[in-house]
Amino acid sequence: MSAAPAIVRTRSGPERDAIREMVAEFFDFMRVRYPDMLAEIDDYILQQDIAGQLADFDRYFLPPHGECFLGLHEGAPAGMVMIRPAGDGACEMNRMYVRPAARGTGLGRALCAAVIAEARALGYRTVLLDALYRHEEALPLYRAMGFRDYSDPALFKADDRRVVHMRLDFDGGPA
Fold first, then answer.
1. pTM for this one?
2. Which of 75, 125, 142, 145 would suit a FRET pair with 97, their CA atoms being 20 to 30 Å apart?
């Protein structure tokens, strides 16, 4: 029987290196899963300046600007998720990824729970996320954790049915 997944805040150089590796794996996974969206994925990577964000890791992914959780499975880096401010009392859960060998171990659920707990602790009222339509591993998890689909014309790719927008509101958030 394997040990329960562990979640740590990314602070050390080796932890940052593991996150950088997994960000690349995440986008490779996206390209394989969504061959019909290669242009959109590449455009997103450029528009978000993923390389620049990773080069200036502390500025984007550490407090007070954000947080980055590293998931460990059997002591090795196996998953990640990032949180960053989204404005108006909301934060965004970003780039959740679990390596194939650790899928089905509860690591994704533990990463998602870490984001929810951190968002509450930081006083956010809402956690937002965007996912793509064939994320059959992640979408049911998000819904089980209390996220619900929503729409708003101002959202990223709001008119593209392949992009799923979800939110989790805490105490008195919008219905």
1. 0.89
2. 125
